[in-house]
Design brief:
Layout: H1 3-27, H2 55-58, H3 64-82, H4 87-116, H5 123-144, H6 155-165, H7 169-192, H8 198-218, H9 225-242, H10 267-284, H11 288-294, H12 296-319, E1 320-322, H13 346-352, H14 357-380, H15 384-407, E2 428-435, E3 438-445, E4 458-462, E5 465-469, E6 477-479, H16 493-501, H17 509-513
Antiparallel strand pairs: 1-6, 2-3, 4-5
Length: 522
């Protein structure tokens, strides 16, 4: 293994990626997404919808993914000839490159629909497609390579007898495992591609970490070592060539204006391709458990979207009553529910806190690099306690980042100021009322919630636009069998009286866990 040749491959792939991204931007400037998403926060759009402009004029061309995927394939084939790979190594390299192209094609179809139909593939179709590509790569890996037919630890330790007694059991298990890991990893990288440069920097550190692990763990004499090193190097260098055209800008919700440095997006084609090649490197090197630790940033992004959108929101919509919507049949937005984050994926939560986006991306890059360093250290540490310490630290840091969502919610700062016609919340309000034929007047403090400081205020997201609802602080939520968050008004008098007699501290277990304030008696 000549380090000079690896450096040459790295520089060549980065240069080809940069050139192809620039050419694609020049040739296809109108390949922009017209997809309209009413839910996610889009604070860079000043009005709804998109200030009367077409959404395509705001988005950037979705050409980065196909460009650097082509760079990966071209440089990978050239590297195979340069290192004189034998047949099994060529097969492994081509399976990895073919899987990367397959993920890219799935993402490109999704991007094509966004451009020409203003709506991408359905979630079911997208997941099924990446699952098929992953399982196809596992099938080829089993049939074309002798190492693909050998069960390995820890799976052979647990189910070794089953793999030996029943034919094709290992093939079925390998396809299911590869399908799950490949699809989840690619979609998690796709979730991370929400801010300029975010996903690219995270993939760069993860790919370099796997390149170091493959070099030191497999060794130069291992038949799979060389192709996996090439794939890791190509993944990192292709992203490095793409990042200058997708560099983060210093926009922040508190300031509201900044010069956009990014020129292109990688799109779903690039995100799925990068996630796919990372998963293939991990599985072929038999380090898929290590992928969980090195790619912990992607795990946090994917889990935040899954738990908030697919688990908690659906549960709350069936079991939660929102009193502010009790008297109407208006659809209750998900932002009214006590979710762990202001928005998902996770980076949008910190974006809503008013962070500078460039600093936010730099911080995410540092976090991803920290996970990668700890992952590498957990492999090469000489003492057993050192390896376990590195793994424990990874999960501790991930738990801290996850728990920061709940206590940082109160620092949410809305982008738009409150309307001028609303009364000053710090000034008293004079009220008059006719009582028994006499004019009665009194002065009381105004009880309007000051929404930038109060955590109890509710809000909606319409295409990322912040629409504040000034809610009374006494409004609360209650777990019940209601539908869509609306209050069920069919209780009879006895039930209402019985509920009023219940002690104030008696709450549903999930309400106590989520720190939901009980309804005040009136």
């Amino acid at each position: 293994m000549d380090p000079v040749l690896f450096l040459l491959i790295f520089i060549t792939c980065a240069f080809i990626s940069l050139v192809l991204c620039w050419i694609a931007k020049t040739l296809f400037p109108k390949f922009r997404s017209g997809e309209f998403k009413p839910g996610p926060h889009r604070s860079d759009i000043p009005a709804y919808p998109a200030s009367g402009r077409e959404i395509k004029t705001i988005e950037l061309p979705l050409v980065g993914g196909p460009a650097f995927t082509i760079a990966i394939v071209i440089t990978g084939i050239w590297a195979g000839y340069l290192f004189h790979l034998h047949n099994d190594q060529w097969r492994l390299l081509l399976i990895g490159l073919g899987a990367t192209v397959g993920f890219m094609v799935v993402g490109f179809i999704d991007d094509w629909h966004k451009v020409h139909s203003n709506e991408g593939l359905s979630e079911r179709a997208k997941f099924s497609s990446v699952l098929f590509v992953s399982m196809a790569a596992a099938f080829l890996y089993f049939w074309l390579l002798p190492t693909g037919r050998e069960p390995y630890s820890p799976y052979s330790d647990v189910m070794g007898a089953l793999f030996k007694s029943l034919p094709f059991t290992w093939l079925i298990f390998l396809m299911l495992m590869t399908g799950l890991i490949g699809s989840v990893t690619s979609l998690s990288v796709d979730f991370s591609d929400g801010l300029d440069g975010l996903a690219g920097g995270l993939v760069f550190s993860a790919a370099l970490a796997f390149g170091i692990i493959v070099t030191g763990f497999l060794g130069k004499n291992h038949p799979q070592g060389m192709p996996l090193e090439i794939l890791s190097l190509l993944c990192a260098s292709a992203v490095l060539g793409y990042l200058p055209l997708n560099w983060p800008s210093s926009w922040a919700a508190r300031r509201g204006s900044a010069r956009r440095l990014a020129k292109v997006y990688m799109g779903d084609s690039g995100a799925l391709a990068l996630g796919g090649i990372l998963s293939m490197i991990a599985i072929f090197s038999r380090q898929e458990i290590l992928l969980l630790m090195i790619g912990m940033a992607f795990v946090l992004e994917g889990l935040s979207a899954l738990i908030s959108a697919r688990v908690l929101t659906r549960f709350f919509r069936k079991r939660l009553q929102v009193l502010s919507f009790a008297s109407s049949h208006e659809y209750v937005p998900h932002t009214e529910f006590p979710l762990p984050f202001l928005a998902t994926p996770l980076h949008h939560h910190f974006d809503l806190l008013g962070w500078n986006r460039r600093r936010l991306v730099y911080g995410a890059w540092a976090l991803g690099a920290g996970f990668a360093i700890l992952g590498v250290a957990s492999v090469f540490a000489t003492e057993t306690w050192e390896r376990y310490l590195c793994r424990i630290l990874i999960f501790i840091f991930a738990a801290i980042i996850w728990s920061s969502g709940s206590w940082s919610r109160k620092y949410f700062v809305g982008k738009h100021p409150a309307p001028a016609d609303l009364p000053n919340p710090h000034e008293p309000v004079r009220s008059e009322e006719i009582r028994d034929g006499h004019l009665a007047s009194w002065t009381e403090a105004h009880q309007q919630t000051v929404w930038p400081q109060e955590s109890s205020s509710s809000y909606k997201n319409n295409d990322g636009l912040h629409s504040q609802q000034h809610a009374h602080q006494d409004q609360a939520v209650e777990l019940t069998n209601g539908y869509n968050g609306h209050l069920n008004n069919t209780f009879d008098g006895e039930e209402q009286q019985h509920e009023a007699e219940q002690p104030a501290g008696k709450q549903h277990w999930l309400a106590r866990m989520l720190h939901i304030s009980p309804i005040k008696s009136r």
